[in-house]
Amino acid sequence: MIDFDSIYPVIDTMLITPYRIGLPAAAAFWMGTALIAFWCTIAGELSMAVIYIWNREYYTDLNRKMTRMHNISVAAIRHKKKDTFKSANKWANEYFGKVFFSHAALFAVSLWPVPFALAWLQERFTGIDIHTIPYTEFGLGYPFVFILSYILVRYGFSKVRQFIPLMKKIDKMRADDAEKAGQMTSWSELVPADTKNAEAKISANPAPAESKA
Fold first, then answer.
1. Which helix (H) or strand (E) holds 140?
2. What residues form the membrane-spanning segments (predicted)?
3. CA 82 to chain centre
4. How far apart are CA 70 and CA 96, in angstroms?
5. How far apart are CA 121 and CA 119, in angstroms?
6. Residue 208, pLDDT score
7. Residue 77: exposed, middle, or buried by beta-carbon count in 10 A (0-12, 13-18, 19+)?
8. CA angle, 158 as apex, 33 and 177 as ends, to 5°?
C-alpha cells in the first residue's frame, strides 16, 4: 500500500518550487498556478482518454442504437405509421439521454485533478490576496487565479491537441466510431420536394418591397 504521508512532501516540494523562482510575487504566483492548471489538464485528458478506450464499444453501441431508433422514427412518420413512430421515438429519446449523460460523465473524469489542486492551494495560500478589485477592499486569492488559469490552459490545449499524437489518435477513434454509428436521417427530408423547390425559388427571388407614396 502506498503511504500518502511519505509521498506528500515530495509532491508538495514539486508543486511549490515554481512559486519560488526569482520573479515578483504576483508573477510567480500566476506562473506556479498556471503550471498546476497545466498538469491538471494533462492528467484529466489522459484519464478521459483511458476511460474512452476502455468503454469504446459501449459508447459506439449507444450511438448506433440512438441513430437506428431515430431513423426508424423518421421512416415511420414518412410512412404514416403512428404506433411505430411512438415506440421508436421513445427508444430514441432514451438512448439520446444515455449518450448525453455518458459524454457528461466522460468529461467529468477530466476534472478529477481539480479538487486536489484546490485543496493543496488552500493549504498553502489561504488568506493571501493576490489582487484587489479596484475601488473596493475585496481581495482575489488562489481560487480566482487557479480557475482563470485552468480555463485558459484548457482552451489553449483544445487548440493544440490535434498536434499531439495521442490526442490526435483519440479524436480519430471518435470520428471512426461516429461513422460506425451511422448517419442520422434529417427531419427536413420529410418535407416534400415540391415544397423545398418553392421555398428555394422564394429565397432566390424575394418579393419586391412596396414603394411608399
1. strand 139-140
2. 27-54, 99-120, 140-157
3. 37
4. 9
5. 5
6. 54
7. middle
8. 135
pLDDT in tens, 37-71: 999 999 999 999 999 999 999 999 999 999 999 89
pLDDT at residue 112, as a whole number: 95
> Cβ distance 28 to 18 under 8 Å?
yes
- All cell numbers assigned to 193: 420536394
Give the pTM. 0.77
CA–CA separation, 60 and 179 (whole Å): 9
- What are 139's strand-pairing partners? 132
DSSP H stretches of helix in 55-182: 56-78, 82-109, 113-125, 142-160, 165-181
Task: Give tens-digit pLDDT for 103-160.
Answer: 999 999 999 999 999 999 999 998 888 887 777 778 888 999 999 999 999 999 999 9
For residues 103 and 97, give the distance between their C-alpha atoms in angstroms, rounded to a whole number: 10
Judge contact between 139 and 132, C-beta under 8 A: yes
Residue 27 has what DSSP assignment? H
Residues 68 and 182: their CA atoms lie apart, in Å, by 8
User: Which residue type does 104 have?
Assistant: A
Q: What is the dihedral of CA 119, 121, 124, 126, to 10 degrees?
A: -90
Element (H, E) at 45: helix 25-54
**Separation of alpha carbons 180 and 63, rounded Å:** 9
Single-letter residue type at 209: A
Residue bearing the bigger pLDDT, 190 or 90: 90
